[in-house]
Design brief:
Elements: E1 18-23, E2 28-32, E3 37-40, E4 44-46, E5 49-51, H1 56-62, E6 74-81, E7 84-89, E8 94-97, E9 107-111, E10 114-117
Antiparallel strand pairs: 1-2, 2-3, 3-9, 4-5, 4-8, 6-7, 7-8, 9-10
């Protein structure tokens, strides 16, 4: 749990369309067009509903709610503090990603110019 500075610029995510969602027992991957992606191994919240990676079967089952993001674009993306990333999508769904793993990586944001690992 190392956090992410609140002034981190996530504007490169704005306008990206969710093209694919891959769900595993311990991992969820959101793939956007232009080769960008977000890999999740942490707690997340989808429009107010918490999705936890513990136990893994719950993560895999509840992660399916992310399918609502397919084909929609990121309207805004910002760091709320304490490593929390908030993204709003074109279908009015809000996704919050938490830095919830004390001993492991929580999430990784990749794009053509680099990576952010938290």
């Amino acid at each position: 749990m190392y956090g992410l500075p609140k002034d981190t610029d996530l504007s490169f995510l704005i306008g990206l369309e969710v093209m694919q969602i891959a769900i595993g027992l311990h991992h969820i991957a959101l793939s956007f067009h232009e080769g960008s992606s977000i890999d999740l191994e942490c707690e997340l919240e989808l429009s107010g509903k918490l999705i936890s990676p513990d136990p893994p079967t719950r993560f895999a089952k509840e992660g399916g709610a992310l399918i609502k993001l397919l084909g929609h674009r990121v309207k805004s993306a910002a760091v709320e503090g304490n490593g929390i990333v908030r993204m709003d999508f074109s279908n009015e769904i809000e996704l919050r990603i938490f830095d919830s793993n004390a001993n492991y990586e929580s999430y990784k944001i990749s794009w053509s110019a680099g990576q952010i690992i938290v």
